[in-house]
């Protein structure tokens, strides 16, 4: 099976890396890729404008691949999967109509209401007066979400009403919600329009600084498994969130095929959905794929062809995985480009550590340089969370990027057994 992975981030490097390990996969193509995918054995990179759905389909046809895996949300929301399928090529990723579950938070709320999925109370606001009324109705902390795509940076949670109003004013349309207490969980499920196969739950770290301070980012770290989570969490989420959502979309004539990502809060009033995404999350994907023993290509191909119902149960390593993101100077507001990335050869020799490239490129002299905000995702595995975390931070300390930044508390509370789910008052 020849596969084309579309995208240029850490998620796509992780997907390409896992596919390249799969004995059922022949050629792995990545477009446009990054320095990491360019250096990946058995992978070939290609120039591509991922904002052009037809260009994605044309490249897939030119390469005569058997499967296209679309990583980022923007091309999915723009209809890239539809264009690929129109060429009779299997594609992992939802149609434009189904990808609206991420493309519009208002649409996601509509689907959740129809499917009876537990979520936060919310109002959709189209002008400042509506936003002001919604903020006053819910009270602080205020949760204001850009209705459209914002690369993980469209959400503001603040107790400052002026800041909340300012964010609403910058967006054409917003969803304002009640604040949800409790730890957050990411649960990914592979779907084929009818059947679902859940992956392990993970937890990610969205804000730029330790202690969840500073602005939201695309994600600064992640870990799995979640020893503190309820034993029946996956079963509960599939039954009450994932399957009802897949069923509702199918009943509307827009079946969802691909990766449905449920962002959850485990609150004092029970589990609630914060958001849906229509693709693999980044950096949770890096941590999850590090533990997946089952080959990836048959799973993604079964999703694309409606055959998930006959897939064997997934096999996982009985280890822990921690991912720490190293970001460029100035991220997320104004990331500096062009700095040289050092230390990669040294880190490559460490046990249990894999470095996934995100915002990198190859310079003319062959050196790796910064080309984006989130530069690297350093993923480590270990027998337990403490060891995996130690390995990850040991590796990060060996990375040399001028004025780079990373969080120092990824998986710290979990490693210390300090994550608590609030109880009803």
Automatic annotation (TrEMBL):
Family: Belongs to the GARS family.
Catalytic activity: 5-phospho-beta-D-ribosylamine + glycine + ATP = N(1)-(5-phospho-beta-D-ribosyl)glycinamide + ADP + phosphate + H(+)
Residue ranges of every copy of the ATP-grasp domain listed in the record: 109-305
Protein name as catalogued: Phosphoribosylamine--glycine ligase
MF terms in GO: phosphoribosylamine-glycine ligase activity
InterPro entries linked: ATP-grasp (IPR011761), ATP_grasp_subdomain_1 (IPR013815), PreATP-grasp_dom_sf (IPR016185), PRibGlycinamid_synth_ATP-grasp (IPR020561), PRibGlycinamide_synth (IPR000115), PRibGlycinamide_synth_C-dom (IPR020560), PRibGlycinamide_synth_C_sf (IPR037123), PRibGlycinamide_synth_CS (IPR020559)
Pfam families in alphabetical order: GARS_A (PF01071), GARS_C (PF02843), GARS_N (PF02844)
Enzyme superclass (EC): ligase
Cofactor: Mn(2+); Mg(2+)
E.C. no: 6.3.4.13
Keyword annotations of the record: ATP-binding, Ligase, Nucleotide-binding, Purine biosynthesis
Highest taxon of the lineage: Bacteria
PROSITE patterns from the UniProt entry: ATP_GRASP (PS50975), GARS (PS00184)
Pathway assigned in UniProt: Purine metabolism; IMP biosynthesis via de novo pathway; N(1)-(5-phospho-D-ribosyl)glycinamide from 5-phospho-alpha-D-ribose 1-diphosphate: step 2/2
């Amino acid at each position: 099976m020849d596969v084309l992975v579309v995208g240029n981030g850490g998620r796509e490097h992780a997907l390409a890396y896992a596919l390249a390990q799969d004995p059922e996969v022949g050629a792995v193509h990545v477009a446009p890729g990054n320095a990491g995918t360019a250096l990946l054995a058995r992978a070939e990179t290609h120039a591509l404008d991922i904002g052009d759905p037809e260009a994605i389909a044309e490249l897939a046809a030119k390469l005569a691949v058997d499967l296209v895996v679309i990583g980022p949300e923007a091309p999915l929301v723009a209809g890239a999967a539809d264009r690929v399928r129109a060429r009779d090529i299997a594609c992992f990723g939802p149609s434009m109509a189904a990808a609206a579950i991420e493309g519009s938070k208002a649409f996601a709320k509509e689907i959740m209401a129809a499917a009876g999925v537990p979520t936060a109370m919310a109002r959709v606001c189209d002008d400042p007066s509506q936003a002001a009324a919604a903020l006053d109705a819910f009270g602080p902390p205020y949760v204001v979400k850009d209705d459209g795509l914002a690369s993980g940076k469209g959400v503001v949670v603040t107790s400052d009403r002026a800041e909340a109003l300012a964010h609403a004013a910058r967006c054409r349309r917003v969803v304002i919600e009640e604040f949800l207490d409790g730890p957050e969980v990411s649960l990914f499920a592979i779907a084929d329009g009818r059947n679902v196969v859940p992956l392990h739950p993970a937890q990610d770290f969205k804000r730029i600084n330790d202690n969840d301070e500073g602005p939201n980012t695309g994600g600064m770290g992640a870990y799995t498994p979640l020893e503190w989570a309820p034993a029946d969490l996956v079963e509960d989420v599939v039954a009450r969130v994932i399957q009802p959502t897949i069923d509702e979309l199918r009943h509307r004539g827009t079946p969802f095929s691909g990766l449905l990502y449920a962002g959850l809060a485990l609150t004092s009033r029970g589990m609630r959905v914060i958001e849906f995404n229509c693709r693999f999350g980044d950096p949770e994907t890096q941590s999850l794929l590090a533990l997946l023993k089952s080959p990836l290509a048959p799973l993604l191909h079964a999703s694309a062809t409606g055959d998930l119902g006959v897939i064997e149960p997934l096999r996982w390593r009985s280890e822990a995985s921690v991912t720490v993101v190293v970001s460029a100077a100035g991220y997320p507001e104004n990331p500096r480009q062009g700095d040289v990335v050092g230390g990669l050869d040294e880190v490559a020799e460490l046990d249990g550590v894999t470095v996934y490239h995100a915002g990198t490129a190859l310079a003319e002299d062959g050196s790796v340089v910064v080309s984006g905000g989130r530069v690297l995702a350093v993923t480590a595995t270990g027998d337990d969370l403490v060891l995996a975390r130690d390995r990850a931070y040991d590796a990060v300390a060996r990375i040399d990027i001028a004025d780079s930044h990373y969080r120092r508390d990824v998986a710290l509370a979990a490693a210390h057994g300090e994550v608590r789910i609030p109880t009803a008052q």
